[in-house]
Amino acid sequence: MYDSVGLWMPSGELVGSGYKDKIPALLSNTTFKEKSNGNWWITGNYKNLFVSVGEEGFSIKGSPNKFYHGYNFKKLTRQEFELSIEMLSDTFSIDIKQARASSLDVAHNFVMQEPVVAYYPFLGICRYYYRQQILNSLYYRNGLRTLIFYDKALEGKMNGEIIPDAWMGKNVLRFEVRFRNRLLKQFNMASLTARDLYSDEVYIQIVHRWASEYKNIKKNKVMNPGVDNLTCKKAKEILLSALVAKIGQNEIVSLVDGWKDNFTTKKEAQRFKKGLAHLGGLTLESDLIKELDKKINQVKEYYR
User: Fold this and answer.
1) CB distance 111 to 167 below 8 Å
2) pLDDT tens for residues 17-53?
């Protein structure tokens, strides 16, 4: 589940470790930078990880999955993440378990029935997020988090990576949540260390949070073909529903967003958008969303 992790240890917790000499000696592609206040940093790579060492402490960032397995197509278990932290601790002669988490990406891959982009029209707006589709990826962004849906097999091919045989010719949808800033506030914790990340209680909380971010996305409905006993008012609503369904609900929302300055009040604009989300003709859940919902729930249920 952990796709990328950022860890930080301040120098006050590294007294007597000799980290300023030991760690740079293990890095490749190193660069040296000195700030105007005299503080210096050495940055470089250890395998696939990006490492920074300086007067203030040291940080590690990268994919624990790729570090442990050599690639990130396979799922990294909680136990394997713990082993990867132990491996880093042995390598750097520092107790990495005590390092503080500064960023965290949580992701899972799903083999789907349909091409990945076919699911995007049914993933609608999400409160407090800006929705944006770029080529074959769908993003939801705010200042703290980014949610991404994309074709993992396609990304691997574009990066020149060897795709697992089990994925050949398959539709592999990846749902990823990137927690970027203020992790303690986001998870309502007093502290969050590498040790916490593989503890049972915290791991469950993070997996549930990943699933809840998906759940918070409004799912666009499809037309109900059974239309009987129409009144004039109802017929207008059904006609509007059909037009919205034909153009695309996300496209309609974007169009209405462009009218925000033309409404008499901001409240009226919100009322209109809310009404579009509850049109009488758009009442059925898409089979594609049912499929994705089921897979997300399975990960939540079998979190280990």
Assistant:
1) yes
2) 999 999 999 999 999 998 878 789 999 999 999 999 9
Q: How far is CA 2 from the centre of its chain?
A: 10
Q: Position of tokens 């349909």?
A: 114
Contacts of the segment 187-193: beta carbons below 8 A, 24+ positions apart? 191/100, 192/100, 192/101, 193/97, 193/98, 193/99, 193/100, 193/101
Amino acid at 18: G
* pLDDT single digits (tens) 81-115: 999 999 999 999 999 999 999 999 999 999 999 99
Q: Identify the three-state secondary structure at position 60.
A: strand
Q: Which of 23-37, 104-118, 209-223, 267-281 has the highest mean pLDDT?
A: 104-118
Q: How far is CA 285 from CA 200, 254, 289, 292, in A?
A: 34, 21, 7, 12
Q: Which of 193, 188, 216, 203 is nearest to 300 (CA)?
A: 203
Q: What is the pTM of this model?
A: 0.84
Long-range contacts of 165-168 (CB under 8 A, 24+ apart): 166/111, 167/73, 167/111
Element (H or E) spanning 269, and its range?
helix 266-276
CA 48 to chain centre: 20
Residue 279: which of 255, 253, 259 has the closest Cα?
A: 253
